[in-house]
Automatic annotation (TrEMBL):
Name this protein carries in UniProt: Prolyl oligopeptidase family serine peptidase
Taxonomic lineage: Bacteria, Pseudomonadati, Bacteroidota, Sphingobacteriia, Sphingobacteriales
Matching InterPro entries: 6-blade_b-propeller_TolB-like (IPR011042), AB_hydrolase_fold (IPR029058), Peptidase_S9_cat (IPR001375)
Origin: domain of life: Bacteria
Domain Peptidase S9 prolyl oligopeptidase catalytic: 770-941
Entry-linked Pfam families: Peptidase_S9
Keywords, in A-Z order: Hydrolase
Species per Swiss-Prot/TrEMBL record: Sphingobacterium bambusae
Coiled coil stretches, renumbered: none
Length: 967
């Protein structure tokens, strides 16, 4: 086989100043629990930007909340125990609240003993850092905007009994932040402040249902209004966005039904002396479809104009009540049984007056009732089922929670069902007068077979429920990021390589991209999908334009397709592209071009990332920062012109920055690198040519002890395309898949992560065509020791690993986690986590095959590791768990037994009870340690572990385990 190596190697390293030590100390797996780092993903600035709070501490241990001033060097630290906590500032940036937990060891002990670990709430006054602590807090909320309160709902100290009349409520404390006054409300089940923080809606659920109801408290006047009392449960209080109305559910036991019956409550005109309260069950009104009732899983909400309430309905089951027999009827029935007794008992006939007594002395054996025979425990699978029986069983709970979107017209007391079992949900337009729904039913059977999903699109009138067919058989695999215009007159959608706008009144369709000199078909999506879309960022605030991206550039396109404008300066020629839209205005539902707008960007040549600005009222994107680092999306605080973002590299853990300049010219570092030691010397981007002639890239992460001119043992880690993560930092951890990059680079390994470009009907061969040249290009750098290169992947990467070793011997050792190994047998097996078959995955997703194996036998066999098993010369570990719900366990067994039959060196690790990855920490540790022991043996020459070199004889257990072996 001829390989093409590209001598071009991009020679920048993603390192800054190395840590202050010449010889980094390698990490051990025992070091991970004590590894300390900053939880930068959860760092929270105050709304006025004067404070930043973040949590730090060890991977496993007690944590600290850090409160840092953004204007000076002040920092306050608060121990919070062994559990992470949300960080919440109030609207006025005057208070900070967070949870304090028990210490880490206590929490772990409670988990083993199945005991609860209660939390405290710590409240910090930012003006003087005075601290107040509340015990046993279950939930808390600030009354924001105009409110000066915090509400704290306490845990029930005594566990409640499980019966219908046991109170579910607990104490709710209202704490005034200014004067420190406390007001307690007992037996509160649910509560919510309105947006302004001036009103509190709450429900009471007391023991014996005494005093249950829903109440409204005016926090300014202190006046509490009873809105409704009943021996019922009131829940799911939901204010509208403006805070002028709210809705909730009410449930009440009804003997006619097996479960509680739910009704709606809507409250508006909340500032009036007597707020307006509306109630609706639909059962008494006989409007909701027979057999259905208001769903307990829906969260009702008011329409914007407060004329209707949206909610869901679901099936409810009536109680089967046998008619009660009278005493005379019972006697008559028993007498009849005696009269029809067998002839052998005729001599013992008695008069009617003694029938009951004699029957009690000589009971007769009843005739066998066929209904009482034991029923078979079985399932019928029918080829006409739209969903497999396994899928129906797995998704049973989801189906139970499914509710049909409906609406109640409050003034006319009219019920309208907007959806049904075919049109399962409705996406509302901004005016909430229309919506669109997707009907999958005509295509559901075939889409469950091959994974190619289609739907008919309907425009639905909310007032009447009337549906108008709008788009027939829309292909959803390509994209369905459809959205209504802000004025609700048009719907944007993608079809067959172009974007269209649908006029929702006339249903006319306009191709708005046909005249734009570019393609909106993704060039990197190589699945079996016809013309996949590049993506859209949606409508502009005025409804006149949509923002669309091709493979590199960003376009502003008019809704009628008559004009278009390229907002980026021919980024295609520079291989720059926008990766994300940074919505820094959370109250904006659309993109307001009268404001500054920010986007995340990446340079595809060298994987530099940064931030770009589209200035207000401008059609020209400006690059603000682009560097050898990963720059997170930008975050702007609500009440200040301050911007926050994080920056990380392979050598520097995430650091937090703040800029008060919208151009980000002088950012201030607020949180510095938390790493104790150097884990990697950086990363190198390698460019190479695959055997298919495609120019691709791979990232080579350097070992911490890297010295130029020396070669290093290397782990090749694979999973489709990985190079966009070139500048990411790897945190030491126990991984669910066994491999942790930081642990290997810390221990003297280089790590190679190549991109893979797939050809349809050749997923395995494509891997070989991309990975082998990548390894050769990495060896050509002089960093990788070509005699000591290993390969590892998990899931789809496990498949790629198990296939690669059948086609090449360049790897000295391999580990395949949960690998697919026989495409033919795997094709029709079940993906047990969802209950669906694998057929759709093969034909429209990762499998990248175009038909079933009966019409494509050569491709299935050519790309199945099992059919090339005799070629394997590389030692292999397979990790495959017996409860794997993604890749059937038999795939690992089949490959292991085949290799074992051929006397190939192979070990299979099975963690009993685990699914596709490892969830239990003890198993994560075990697999990680074994994998490194194995690689250390083959790539570093260390002694082989006994479990690899000698095998395990189950019958020859150590003496102290023999007595328990078969318990």
């Amino acid at each position: 086989m001829k390989y093409y190596l590209l001598a071009l190697v991009i020679s920048q390293f993603a390192w800054l100043t190395p840590k202050a030590q010449e010889k980094p100390t390698p990490l051990t797996w025992q070091d991970i629990p004590d590894w300390r780092y900053n939880r930068t993903n959860d760092a929270t600035p105050s709304p006025d930007s004067k404070w930043l709070a973040y949590i730090s501490g060890p991977t496993q241990g007690d944590l600290t909340l850090n409160l840092k001033s953004t204007t000076n060097s002040q920092i306050y630290q608060y121990p919070i125990g062994g559990q992470n906590s949300p960080i919440v500032f109030n609207e006025h940036s005057s208070y900070l609240a967070f949870y304090k937990s028990a210490d880490y060891k206590t929490i772990k002990g409670n988990q083993k003993a199945k005991k609860p670990s209660r939390r405290k709430l710590q409240l910090i006054a930012l003006k003087d850092t005075a601290s107040t602590i509340f015990e046993n807090v279950q939930k808390f909320d600030f009354a924001n905007e105009h409110g000066g309160w915090i509400a704290l709902r306490f845990e029930s100290i005594v566990p409640t009994a499980k019966n219908d009349t046991t109170g579910r409520g607990s104490d709710l404390l209202l704490y005034n932040l200014e004067n420190k006054q406390k007001f307690n409300i007992g037996s509160v089940h649910d509560y919510a402040f309105n947006k302004s923080g001036t009103l509190l809606a709450y429900s009471v659920d007391a023991a014996g249902q005494n005093g249950n109801g829903v109440f409204l408290l005016n926090l300014a006047s202190g006046l509490t209004t009873l809105l409704q009392n009943d021996a019922a449960t009131f829940s799911k209080i939901n204010w509208n966005k403006e805070g002028t109305a709210f809705s909730l559910l009410k449930s009440k036991k009804d003997k006619a039904y097996k479960t509680a019956v739910y009704s709606l409550i809507g409250v508006k005109n909340v500032l009036a002396k007597t707020p307006e309260v509306y109630s609706y069950t639909g059962l008494q009104e006989q409007q909701i479809t027979a057999g259905y009732g208001i769903s307990e899983n829906s969260i009702p909400y008011w329409s914007k104009d407060l004329s209707r309430i949206f909610f869901g309905i679901a099936k409810i089951e009536k109680t089967k009540v046998e008619p009660e027999k009278t005493q005379d009827a019972k006697v008559d029935s028993l007498a009849q049984k005696v009269k029809t007794a067998s002839l052998a008992d005729s001599a013992q006939r008695i008069t009617d007056s003694t029938t009951v007594k004699l029957a009690a002395k000589a009971p007769q054996k009843p005739a066998t009732n066929k209904k009482d025979l034991e029923k078979p425990d079985m399932t019928i699978w029918n080829w006409q089922d739209k969903r497999l029986q396994s899928s129906q069983r797995t998704q049973l709970e989801r189906d139970k929670r499914f509710n049909i979107m409906s609406v109640w017209e409050v003034n006319s007391n009219k019920f309208v069902s907007l959806a049904d079992s075919n049109l399962r949900s409705i996406s509302l337009a901004p005016n909430q007068k229309i919506g669109y729904g997707l009907d999958f039913s005509p295509y559901e059977f075939t889409s469950n077979l091959d994974g190619q999903r289609f739907a008919d699109v309907y425009i639905v009138d909310i007032a009447s429920g009337e549906r108008k067919p709008a788009i027939e058989k829309l292909y959803l695999n390509a994209s369905f990021s459809s959205s209504f215009s802000p004025n609700s007159t048009h719907l944007l959608y993608y079809n067959d390589g172009d974007y269209y706008v649908l006029d929702v009144k006339t249903l006319t369709k306009t191709n708005i991209t046909k005249n734009i000199p570019t393609s909106f078909i993704s060039v990197t999506d190589d699945h079996n999908v016809s013309k996949p879309a590049t993506g859209t960022y949606g409508w502009t605030h005025d409804g006149r334009f949509v923002l669309l991206k091709d493979n590199y550039d960003l376009w502003k396109v008019s809704f009628d397709g008559k004009s278009h404008k390229q907002l980026t300066d021919n980024w295609k020629s520079k291989k720059l592209l926008a990766t994300s839209y940074n919505n820094i205005y959370p109250d904006d539902e659309d993109i307001d071009l009268s404001k500054d707008q920010y986007f995340g960007i990446i340079d595809d040549n060298n994987k530099q990332t940064g931030i770009a600005l589209l200035p207000a009222k401008s059609d020209k994107m400006q690059i603000l920062t682009l560097e050898d680092a990963y720059i997170s999306p930008l975050n702007k605080v609500k009440h200040a012109s301050s911007f926050f973002y994080s920056r990380q590299t392979p050598t520097v853990s995430p650091e937090l920055y703040m800029s008060t300049d919208k151009m980000l010219t002088s950012p201030v570092k607020l949180v510095a690198d938390s790493a104790k030691q150097l884990l990697s010397a950086g990363s190198k981007l390698i460019s190479y040519i695959s055997d298919h002639g495609d120019t691709l890239q791979a990232v080579l992460y350097l070992p911490a002890n890297y010295v130029e001119g020396q070669t290093y043992p290397t782990i090749t880690y694979i999973y489709e395309r990985l190079t966009n993560g070139k500048n990411s930092y790897s945190l030491p951890a126990y991984p669910g898949g066994g491999f942790n990059r930081a642990m290997y680079t810390s221990n003297g390994y280089a790590v190679l992560m190549p991109d893979i470009k797939y050809k349809l009907n050749d997923p395995g061969m494509s891997t070989v065509a991309c990975v082998v040249p990548a390894v050769k290009a990495a060896v050509a750098t002089g960093i990788v020791d070509e005699k000591n290169v290993a390969i590892h992947g998990h899931s789809w990467g496990g498949y790629q690993t198990s296939f690669l070793i059948t086609q090449t011997n360049i790897f000295k050792a391999a580990v395949a986690g949960a690998p697919l190994t026989n495409m033919i047998s795997m094709y029709s097996l079940i993906y047990w986590n969802s209950g669906s078959s694998n057929q759709s995955i093969f034909e429209s997703s990762q499998g990248r095959l175009t038909t079933g194996y009966w019409d494509n036998w050569d491709a299935y066999a050519r790309n199945s590791p099992i059919f090339h098993i005799k070629n394997v010369q590389t030692p292999l570990i397979i990790m495959h768990n017996d409860k794997d719900g993604a890749v059937d366990y038999t795939q690992g067994i089949e490959y292991f037994n085949g290799l074992r039959r051929l006397n190939k060196p192979v070990v299979m690790l099975t963690y009993n009870g685990e699914n596709h990855g490892l969830a239990k920490e003890v198993n994560q540790k075990d697999y990680a340690v074994r994998m490194m022991e194995y690689f250390d043996h083959y790539l570093k020459g260390k002694e082989a572990p006994e479990w690899w070199s000698k095998g395990i004889d189950f019958m020859a257990l150590p003496k102290h385990l023999e007595d328990r072996a078969f318990e």
